[in-house]
Design goal:
Blueprint: H1 5-15, E1 23-25, H2 30-40, E2 44-47, H3 53-58, E3 66-69, E4 79-82, E5 85-89, H4 94-99, H5 101-106, H6 108-115, H7 120-125, H8 128-134, H9 142-147, E6 151-155, E7 160-164, H10 165-168, E8 169-171, E9 174-175, E10 182-189, E11 195-202, E12 213-221, E13 228-236, E14 243-244, H11 246-252, H12 262-272, H13 283-304
Parallel strand pairs: 1-3, 2-3
Antiparallel strand pairs: 4-5, 5-10, 6-7, 6-10, 8-9, 11-12, 12-13, 13-14
This protein binds flavin-adenine dinucleotide.
């Protein structure tokens, strides 16, 4: 811990600076970070890579009295398999996700989504935890995490909560995270064999593009690759929070791919989403595109299964 927050506030008053002096903490341990949060709560802002936060801060979207920087907490930077789950620390960068052999092997949709974020600089600094807590409907990792049934581990000085991703988001930039809590880990069940995935991001250009719409489709097949056991269709930028279109699962489970009507499934996605008009695209455009990319994703998974299902 670099300085006591109280001392900083005193010196801030004494020096009468025009730009308020910033309290800054960079602990090495999670416990220390939680102690700081429990003491200062709303007065202090948690900073990870700063790629969202500093843009918002320079635009003066909020006042900040102090910073709690997570950069020195090495325990938050690990990706590891623990029995039948994958544990990803909240400070894991997009570049780490993109390059991890385990993430590529078990969660290709997540790895591809990470590789589509911003630019190399943004992927080196930006973190999975920041993408989640920032809770932009256009956050690229959110739909993939939901499609892999992610849970988020939240810690405070007094409790620990494990919350499914779909229950974490309340609206644009709004989550259930309390000011005394940190997101410390993202936990994913290891997918069963014969799980296939497809990631599609539509944006205005290939690099440095905020998504107009994203789709993460993850399908688990039976061992013989013939029948759908589970299917999760999650989208971003089509509602105030990332969403799963649960009706698709009901339509797909228990069927082979040649029994599926891709156009009907695309239409369900189009009907179930409620996008808005904004600078990246109109509501109608997003609805049309959602249908098309759903069909494309089904075709891609069909061929990834070896086309064996269409015999
Ligand atoms: C040029 C540019 C391009 C971008 N392109 C994309 C893109 O293509 N796709 C995309 O999804 N995003 C994009 N972003 C947004 C941003 O890079 C990502 O959302 C990134 O993942 C944010 O992570 P961070 O570590 O920088 O978060 P920060 O900015 O440090 O924090 C974001 C928010 O999360 C909170 N927070 C962070 N970590 C924790 C934690 N562990 N516990 C509690 N609270 C926490 C912070 O208090 C803050 O409110 C872009 C940003 C820029 C500037």
């Amino acid at each position: 811990m670099e300085e006591s927050f109280g001392d900083l506030k005193k010196s801030q008053k004494m020096h009468q600076r025009t730009i308020p002096y910033q309290g800054y903490f960079a602990p090495q341990q999670i416990e220390e970070a939680l102690e700081i949060l429990s003491k200062y709560g709303k007065e202090i802002k948690v900073i990870a890579g700063g790629t969202d936060l500093l843009v918002q801060y320079y635009d003066r979207l909020y006042e900040v009295n102090g910073w709690l920087d997570l950069r020195n907490i090495s325990r938050l930077k690990n990706i590891r398999i623990n029995k039948n789950i994958m544990e990803i620390g909240a400070m894991v960068s997009h570049a780490q996700l993109e390059n991890s052999e385990d993430i590529k092997k078990y969660y290709p949709v997540l790895s591809q989504a990470a590789s589509d974020i911003g630019s190399p600089q943004i992927r080196n600094r930006g973190t999975i935890g920041g993408n989640i807590v920032n809770a932009s409907p256009a956050g690229d990792l959110l739909a993939p995490l939901m499609s892999y049934k992610a849970k988020f581990k939240l810690l405070s000085g007094k409790d620990e909560t494990l919350i499914p991703a779909e229950n974490f988001f309340l609206g644009p930039k709004k989550t259930i995270l309390r000011p005394d809590q940190l997101l410390v880990q993202i936990i994913l069940p290891l997918p069963k064999k014969n799980t296939y995935g497809c990631w599609i991001k539509i944006g205005k250009r290939r690099a440095l593009s905020i998504a107009t719409i994203t789709l993460a489709l993850v399908v688990e097949m039976t061992e013989d690759n013939k029948i759908v056991k589970d299917a999760r269709t999650c989208l971003g930028s089509v509602a105030p929070t990332p969403i799963e279109v649960k009706e698709i699962r009901k339509k797909m489970v228990g069927k082979s791919f040649n029994q599926l009507d891709f156009a009907e499934l695309g239409q369900i996605v189009e009907d179930k989403i409620s996008p808005i008009d904004d600078i990246r695209g109109t509501r109608e455009y997003r609805k049309d595109v959602a249908k098309e990319i759903m069909i494309n994703a089904l075709e891609e998974i069909d061929s990834a299964c070896g086309g064996c299902i269409n015999e």
